Predict the structure.
Amino acid sequence: MNRLKLVLPTPEYKEELMEYKREFIENEDSMDGTAGLRTAKTFKDWYSVICDNLKEETVRDGLVPSTTYMAISTNDGRLIGMIDIRHRLNDYLLNFGGHIGYSIRKSERKQGYATEMLALGLTECVKLNIKKVLITCDKDNVTSAKTIINNGAKLENEIPEGNGITQRYWITLD
């Protein structure tokens, strides 16, 4: 497909990232895979966190090392989505969060971007030597489940979480 490329955030993308955040907030939408962009007070604060979280030596307390990418349209350079790849799992991530979180802006949904972005993210997992990737979603989120399954995932189980149920999917990479 090659409609997207994964790009590490840099200060040059500040305006696009802030617009992405605004769209999610206006739509009262969940911002998965953004490494806390929604709650960051400033771009500088958020950027500092994602840079620190790249390495085990500098990861913020309570978090695991992760790499956050922007999914950029190869056609027009628009920020379509974001994906966060956690290099390892802690107890919470093993049960509920998984290795990967992602989101697509509402204005770009239902075009197959999530499936393509997740496939690109799995390529990055191979580079990180993650051979078995856990991806989770709410049982109500049928679209996300389809995206995960379209990338070769197998449902392992479902776990109650709060008022909902989390589905746990595994993808084995070569």
Residues 10 and 21 are 15 Å apart (CA to CA). The chain has one domain: 4-172.
